[in-house]
Design brief:
The protein is mainly beta. It contains 2 helices and 22 strands. The radius of gyration is 29 Å and the shape is elongated.
């Protein structure tokens, strides 16, 4: 016991955090069983573990000084700041539904500037997104006016200063190129050769889709955060693990997008709830710390 009391450690290393399912959970097209690793955070920039409690006092006497203290409402919060985000971690953070990349295509917005090489025609084949077959996805054909998914193709002539003018007039038609069936060619009598045009339309492309609904929130997981503690006596780094047996991820998050300064980071805030750690059901804990060696 004396040696243990005299052992001291320093901490200057990030955690690698493994999230495990508390119960059966479906993310994307995969279902995770209880205890199965869901994700490993290995690109964290910082992680902190903070504990707080509420104190109330009996006061009295001259000066109404504090006489007796009661403490309660202890909370433990674990915060992770990740340098990168993925569809899976976004789904974990926001509770978003996740449709992972597949051979199916979706309709996405497209806007780009294209040069007209032949009067009355725009060849879009070189600028459209590609699909897994290597072919262009093609332009989505506008439907009938009044339908729920109807949209119009807009084409704007770019002037010498690079400004976008009013939409060109005339009927717009789509056709396939010399090979394949994808609609990649735009025809309109208002198009002038050697001029540049901004085209705004919808195209087919592959995508991983994440949908945030008002009734879905971030879930609870079993957290194992592995780091290193350096022993003062000999400078040896010892593996250490913070265990949060029931961590509820807060559903609050902020995405910052800017072209200056440091790149954005993504913060996960976890509220620790009492629960049993693996292999020890003697008592429920908010968190445990294990230092090997």
């Amino acid at each position: 016991m004396a040696n243990l009391m005299q052992t001291r450690f320093g901490s200057r290393e990030i955690c690698n955090v493994t999230l495990k399912a508390k119960s059966e959970r479906k993310i994307g097209n995969k279902t995770f069983q209880k205890g199965e690793p869901v994700y490993v955070f290995d690109t964290l920039k910082a992680s902190t573990l903070e504990s707080s409690a509420t104190s109330v006092y009996a006061t009295g006497g001259r000066g109404n000084s504090r006489l007796v203290t009661w403490e309660g409402e202890k909370t433990v919060t674990f915060t992770m700041e990740d340098a990168l985000i993925s569809p899976v971690t976004f789904s974990i953070l926001s509770g978003a539904g996740l449709d992972e990349y597949s051979d199916e295509t979706t309709k996405v917005h497209f806007s780009d500037t294209v040069k007209c090489t032949t009067a009355g025609k725009l060849d879009m084949s070189e600028v459209l997104p590609t699909v897994t077959s290597g072919k262009t996805g093609g332009i989505v054909q506008p439907g009938d006016k009044g339908s729920a998914d109807y949209y119009a193709i807009y084409i704007y002539k770019i002037d010498e200063e690079g400004n976008m003018g009013t939409p060109i007039t005339g009927a717009i038609t789509l056709s396939a190129g010399t090979s394949g069936t994808d609609l990649t060619q735009i025809a309109c009598e208002g198009l002038t050769a050697n001029e540049y045009y901004l085209v705004d339309c919808y195209v087919y492309a592959h995508a991983t889709k994440m949908t945030v609904t008002p009734d879905e929130f971030a879930g609870s997981y079993y957290f194992e955060a592995e780091t290193l503690f350096r022993r003062e006596a000999d400078g040896v780094d010892l593996p250490a693990t913070f265990i949060i047996p029931h961590g509820k991820i807060q559903s609050n998050y902020t995405f910052s997008m800017a072209s200056t300064g440091d790149p954005s980071t993504f913060t996960f805030t976890v509220d620790a709830m009492p629960d049993y750690i693996q292999f020890d059901r003697s008592k429920k804990v908010l968190f445990a710390l294990e230092i090997l060696g």
